[in-house]
TrEMBL record:
The lineage of its organism: Eukaryota, Fungi, Dikarya, Ascomycota, Pezizomycotina. Belongs to the cytochrome P450 family. Heme binds at C427. Keywords: Heme, Iron, Membrane, Metal-binding, Monooxygenase, Oxidoreductase, Transmembrane, Transmembrane helix. Its cofactor is heme. The keyword Hydrolase does not apply. This is Cytochrome P450. The keyword Iron applies. GO terms for molecular function: heme binding; iron ion binding; monooxygenase activity; oxidoreductase activity, acting on paired donors, with incorporation or reduction of molecular oxygen. The chain crosses the membrane at residues 6-26, 284-313. CDD domains: CYP64-like (cd11065).
Length: 534
């Protein structure tokens, strides 16, 4: 009898398994009939076996060449549509942003690690709008211009750091110090002049752990329904809880510290807004923390890309330096007031962002309603992934796309610039980021030549390689370590840098006190404008 029952259970299980596979095949076939083309999925797992193991944006770019600008993929139960053209991205994510502004579920990073507090992965809704309003209050165009004195301070220190003997190897760390110190000063009233402060070390550790999460494929991201399992049966939850406790404790401590600092900062500004009323300090910590995560990494990586480009394209650097010598001259360093007269510097910054986008694989969106586009059906709930690398390398939009050609932006100012994202999910810190890139690009080219470094091997001088495709295969893709020779453009450069550094107000709290007065003045002006319109 027991044998018969065992055989019956085995047959039943087999039948159920076969039925599940048949249902999966039928559902996939029906759902994909009018969707964009793509590789054939397998039952249950879909196209998971076809996800590129490294540099996925390159693998998906090859798919666009085969299937067209829209490619359908199936990641387990999740439908995904990859976008490989700027036209399609703008048509869907920009022009139809009312239904393309949400995010797909991200069980590991958002639900388990961040406890749904990280705005980057938060679905579109009331909570996202409240968080976004807090961000916009300190990151809009007008307010961002008021941060120029702090940009100026950190940029002047960066120029001096690049004159040090080991700068040719350590320049990425100087870029990270610059961007981290700028964000920390604004967010928490904490300056990081040495680049080895405890706050920075912990922030690096958090970022490194998050990057490791992005590099791995987590079962819970493929099969989200298993997230209901108890912790004893869900090893990813133990990893996530440890990370959350470490990160949330750190972010909460920064908020508490910022409240006690003199002068103005982003934390105090947000605490005074109705959107943060009764908000736990941990929640505000995540709202502020994502600005560091997004802002410091992207700016520092873009500056390293700039150095790579200047080494590989010396004629571009020479042309920019001719412009700087004509507009600025040798007796002072460039200021924000010069930027309007430096169109080629603007073009270099735009080309840096296009040539090697910091997030080449894009950040997924989610569509909240069924949609139709160019004869294709896009089902509600689909993950929509804009592939920024494919867009940047589109020869129909950018001729000689593989090459670093700033002139394209001067010859055609209407070219699309998309590295900051699309629609309502565009990066709110883009104005602060652009200001950092502009002032540092201008000053570095005014002060230095960036050339190939050399080292001695077997008694011979050998040129150190700089590979334009040698980047990390991570969410934020940065150049793999390379050496540069950073040479001052004459003895007078050091004289000017030292003179201007001596004249610089180095106390960031003084700058923040001035910022407080500016913010109060702007608030009064805004109130008067509103009163005048009523």
């Amino acid at each position: 009898m027991a044998v018969l029952v065992s055989q019956f259970n085995a047959k039943t299980a087999l039948a159920v398994g076969v039925l599940m596979i048949l249902v999966s095949v039928v559902k996939q076939y029906r759902s994909r009939r009018r969707m964009p083309p793509g590789p054939r999925p397998l039952p249950l797992i879909g196209n998971i076996h076809q996800i590129p193991k490294s540099y996925p944006w390159l693998g998906y770019t090859d798919m666009f060449k085969r299937y067209g600008p829209l490619v359908t993929m199936q990641f387990g139960p999740q439908q995904a549509i990859m976008i490989g053209s700027i036209e399609a991205a703008r048509d869907l994510l920009d022009k139809r942003n009312t239904i393309y502004s949400s995010r797909p579920r991200a069980p590991m990073i958002q639900e388990c690690i961040s406890k749904n507090l990280r705005i980057l992965f938060l679905p579109y809704g009331d909570r996202w709008r409240a968080y976004h309003k807090l961000h916009a209050s300190v990151l809009n165009v007008r307010v961002s211009e008021a941060y120029r004195p702090l940009h100026d301070l950190e940029s002047r220190q960066l120029l001096l750091e690049l004159s040090e003997a080991d700068a040719g190897e350590l320049f990425p760390s100087h870029f990270f110090r610059y961007s981290a110190s700028l964000i920390y000063s604004l967010a928490y009233g904490i300056r990081l002049p040495k680049g080895v402060e405890p706050e920075l070390k912990v922030a690096y550790q958090v970022m490194e752990e998050l990057n490791q999460v992005f590099l791995r494929t987590w079962l819970v991201d493929i099969l989200p329904w298993i997230n209901v399992l108890p912790k004893a049966l869900a090893p990813w939850k133990r990893v996530a809880d440890r990370m959350h406790e470490f990160e949330s404790s750190f972010l909460r401590s920064l908020v508490v510290s910022a409240e006690q600092k003199p002068g103005w900062n982003w934390c105090k500004n947000m605490l005074a807004m109705k959107e943060s009323k009764n908000m736990p300090r941990t929640e505000l910590g995540y709202i502020l923390g994502v600005l560091y995560e997004a802002g410091s990494d992207t700016t520092a990586i873009a500056l390293s890309v700039f150095v790579m480009a200047m080494i590989l394209y010396p004629s571009v650097a020479s042309k920019a330096q001719e412009e700087l010598d004509r507009v600025v001259g040798p007796d002072r360093m460039p200021t924000f007031g010069d930027l309007d007269d430096l169109p080629y510097i603007h073009a270099i910054v735009k080309e840096t962002l296009r040539w090697r986008p910091v997030i080449p694989g894009g950040i997924p969106h989610a569509v909240t309603e069924d949609d139709e586009y160019k004869g294709y059906h896009i089902p509600k709930g689909s993950m929509i992934i804009p592939n920024l690398w494919a867009m940047a390398m589109d020869e129909q939009v950018f001729k000689q796309a593989e090459h670093f050609v700033p002139e394209r932006w001067i010859e055609n100012p209407s070219l699309p610039l998309f590295p900051f994202g699309f629609g309502r999910r565009v990066c709110p810190g883009q104005h602060v980021g652009k200001n950092s890139l502009l002032i540092n690009t201008a000053r570095m080219l005014w002060a230095y030549n960036f050339e190939h470094a050399y080292e001695v091997k077997d008694g011979l001088q050998v040129q150190c390689p700089v590979d334009a495709m040698a980047f990390t295969s991570s969410f934020n893709s940065q150049p793999l370590p390379f050496k540069a020779s950073i040479i001052a453009r004459g003895a007078k450069v050091h004289e000017v840098m030292q003179r201007e550094w001596k004249l610089t107000e180095k106390d960031h709290l003084v700058h923040l006190e001035h910022l407080q007065a500016k913010m109060e003045s702007m608030a009064r002006q805004s109130a008067q404008d509103v009163a005048g319109q009523s």
